[in-house]
Amino acid sequence: MFGIDEHSNRLSLINRWDPRLKLIGLIVLAFAFAYVRDLRMLIAMLAITAVIYAVSRLPVVFWLKRMRYPSVFLLAIVLILILLSEGEVVASLGPFDLHKEGLFSALLIAIRFVSILTVVLVLFGSAPFLKTIKAMRALRLPAILADMVLLTFRYLNELGDDLRRMRTSMKMRGFRAKHFSIKGLRTLAWVGGSLLVHSYERADTVYKAMILRGYGNTPRPKEEFKSTFYDWLALVALLAIAAGFVIGDLLLGHQIATWLQ
Known about the structure:
Strand order of the largest sheet: 1-2
Number of helices: 9
Mean pLDDT: 80
Structural class: mainly alpha
Strand content: under 5%
Distance between the termini: 53 Å
Oligomer: single chain
Largest sheet: 2 strands, antiparallel
């Protein structure tokens, strides 16, 4: 599934962690990162993120590959914030002024984005994807939601294969999308429409096959996860770190408000 769990068999402390507790701890930490608004907390955030990734023993190449496409989206947001924000001007690049408020906002968003995405990569990359789905169900997540996540990841691969076959077929027929043209847009729109129709037909077929095999009437699977004392200790430590970020941000924000008054 996009190679997300190609390194899930690595021996690491996070890999051996109970998937249920790992799911809780890393998701809570990601939400705590999203809450941070003070720039002074960013160094600690990056340090904790780096430690978690190092403990997971996932290769750096894995992180770089997964960050490639999200970084394009992040770069666009950062440039918009830097160039279009208002406030104190700190530098100029031709017709554009760089504002201090825009730079601070861009830095805050970029570091939070990278930290949260890294934590999510560790969550799904340090265990087989199917095992993570089972952990979701063990945490009493509605079965239909867990199954939707599993089927979405499963059939996104199939859609990717269909798209590659269509692109190969289009190239063999002489289509080249190097220049903007109305004809090229029509062709791309046709490809997108074909993929949507094909994905709907496939989803309908899969749903009917699942119903015929008794989906929804099967007994709940037995619990297969067991937690140790160290699993719970790791969860408590991670929750304490997450609480530390939230409390630290609140205290720093209160100090700044008091100082301004």
